[in-house]
Write a structure and sequence with these properties.
Largest sheet: 6 strands, parallel
Number of helices: 11
Number of strands: 8
Helix content: 40-55%
Distance between the termini: 22 Å
Strand content: 15-25%
Radius of gyration: 19 Å
Strand order of the largest sheet: 3-2-1-6-7-8
Shape: globular
Length: 254
């Protein structure tokens, strides 16, 4: 039943074990400035300011690319992504990182082509050669209005769009993998036929266990890349309840 399934991944601390923004900050010597400005700027604007600083220091997009290529990716997670794609699942990412970081890391590890869509903060290189990051939601327009999500991105709105496309395309379920506070809003929108895979002891897992009755989807926690691979592939192979009922009714009628 893999062809009926959309697998939606968060990126930081889910596909990769760490945080792509923090990697650039730490590895490229921006920790001092980051700590100085952290309380004054929203995260998205702060990351753009960090890239401005790198540009002023003469660091190039190529330098940032090489830093990102050093991001490790668990071999079990690579295997899970490739297997889910080969089985016919549609794979997507919803992330509060940015497109340049995600594309660079996934392309380096050979799995960029497995994903049909990436919803994240857009990025571009301006005419001066500086990498820039923009918010996913235009902050100058009407706010998205979600109290659970940061101003620049509501992942729940993206899940709404995915659910609409799932319904239109005849797909039947979503498997959502995440770890952070921003993954709680989309989790609340999942239905009884869906699955959520929160990383154990991370914020999403704590939200779910704090108010479990608010969650309609079936919950399967994970900690390591090996657990993620095993659980995800098992869930992909799980036949939705309504399909079992339909199959049973067909058998009886025959």
């Amino acid at each position: 039943m893999a062809g009926d399934t959309v697998v939606v991944f968060d990126f930081d601390r889910t596909i990769i074990d760490g945080d792509s923004d923090n990697r650039v900050i730490t590895e490229m010597g921006l920790t001092g400035l980051f700590n100085k400005l952290r309380s004054n700027l929203p995260w998205n604007s702060l990351m753009d300011r960090m890239l401005e600083e790198l540009h002023s220091q003469g660091k190039t997009v190529k330098d940032i690319t090489e830093c990102l290529k050093g991001t490790p990716l668990d071999q079990h997670i690579i295997a899970a992504i490739k297997a889910a794609h080969a089985l016919g699942c549609e794979l997507r990412i919803i992330s509060d990182a940015n497109l340049f970081y995600i594309e660079t890391i996934l392309e380096h590890h050979g799995v960029w082509g497995c994903f049909s869509r990436i919803d994240t903060n857009p990025s571009f290189v301006n005419e001066e050669g500086q990498l820039r990051i923009l918010p996913f939601h235009d902050l100058s327009s009407t706010p998205h209005g979600c109290k659970l999500c940061p101003p620049n991105m509501c992942k729940g709105l993206v899940i709404d769009q995915i659910q609409a496309s799932v319904s239109d395309s005849g797909k039947k379920r979503i498997i959502y993998l995440g770890d952070g506070n921003g993954d709680y809003c989309p989790t609340l929108k999942l239905g009884e036929n869906d699955f959520v895979m929160p990383r154990k002891n991370y914020p999403l897992w704590k939200h779910i266990h704090g108010k479990p009755k608010l969650i309609k989807a079936k919950v399967h926690e994970w900690s390591t890349g090996e657990e993620l691979e095993r659980i995800l592939l098992h869930l992909i192979d799980t036949v939705p309840i309504q399909d079992k009922i339909s199959s049973s009714n067909t058998s009886r009628s025959n």
